[in-house]
Amino acid sequence: QKEVEQNSGPLSVPEGAIASLNCTYSDRGSQSFFWYRQYSGKSPELIMSIYSNGDKEDGRFTAQLNKASQYVSLLIRDSQPSDSATYLCAVYTGNQFYFGTGTSLTVIP
Amino acid sequence: EAGVAQSPRYKIIEKRQSVAFWCNPISGHATLYWYQQILGQGPKLLIQFQNNGVVDDSQLPKDRFSAERLKGVDSTLKIQPAKLEDSAVYLCASSLNRVSIAFFGQGTRLTVV
């Protein structure tokens, strides 16, 4: 079992819709959770971090964490074509960061 | 504030040749990571340094890969000899400490032919 699992997609949503990205992790002791955005040919950039159960909102982005279900998600409201990218879920277990394979998102104008 | 600097940006070598990558982390960041990202996959940790000491190198192919961070700042990653399957983007990242957010450099795209 992989440490971090994501649906690879591709996920397509129309402009203005809500995009929902999901991630599960295997280590119950995981402490910190991150969402990175990676444009094609570019390096990952951090967009959200979340450390406790519940929701965390930052502009159009909302991260949701459920440690009991070992599940973390990212919601993007009012999706824009510029949001088209691969979204990587990263989990810090207390030892190292593990990345998922990423979900490719395309926002259709 | 300057970000993580990496060089070169691109490198093409023949199999069995050697190659080295350089990384300069964000000033003051004690933790430095080298990741390998193969096309279509997420980054895979190769080695993690805390200052100039190795914290985790469990996924580093030590028969061909080596890395050092002698003065606790800059780091180099070397591959010798390279194989076709080493073609990937090599990402360097740094963080203030082991539990802080990691910031990535632009990466070095290696093509082995």
Query: Which structural class best describes the helix and strand composition of chain A?
Result: mainly beta
Describe the largest sheet of chain B: 7 strands, mixed
Total number of β-strand segments of chain B? 11
Task: Return Rg of chain A in Å.
Answer: 13 Å
Number of strands of chain A: 11
Can you tell me the overall shape of chain B? globular
Taken as a percent bin, the fraction of beta residues of chain B is over 45%
Mean pLDDT of chain A: 93
- What assembly state would you assign to the polypeptide chains in this entry? heterodimer
- Give the radius of gyration of chain B: 13 Å
Descriptive terms for the model:
heterodimer; A: 109 residues; mainly beta; 6-stranded mixed beta sheet; 5-stranded antiparallel beta sheet; 0% helix; globular; B: 113 residues; 7-stranded mixed beta sheet; 4-stranded antiparallel beta sheet; 11 strands; 49% strand
Description:
The complex is a heterodimer of chains A (109) and B (113). Chain A is mainly beta and 109 residues long. Helix content of chain A is 0%, strand content 56%. Chain A has strands spanning 4-6, 11-14, 19-25, 32-38, 45-50, 54-58, 61-66, 71-76, 85-92, 97-99, 103-108. In chain A, strands 2, 4, 5, 9, 10 and 11 form a six-stranded mixed β-sheet that branches. Chain A has a five-stranded antiparallel β-sheet with strand order 1-3-8-7-6, with no helix packed on it. In chain A, strand 4 (32-38) and strand 5 form a beta hairpin. Chain A is globular, with a radius of gyration of 13 Å. By secondary structure, chain B is mainly β. Chain B is built from no helices and eleven strands. Chain B has strands spanning 5-7, 10-13, 19-24, 31-37, 44-50, 53-56, 65-68, 75-79, 88-95, 103-104, 108-112. In chain B, the strands form two sheets. In chain B, strands 2, 4, 5, 6, 9, 10 and 11 form a seven-stranded mixed β-sheet that branches. In chain B, strands 1-3-8-7 form a four-stranded antiparallel β-sheet, with no helix packed on it. In chain B, strand 4 and strand 5 (44-50) form a beta hairpin. In chain B, 35% of the residues are buried. At the A-B interface, strand 4, strand 5, strand 9 and strand 10 of A face strand 5 and strand 10 of B.
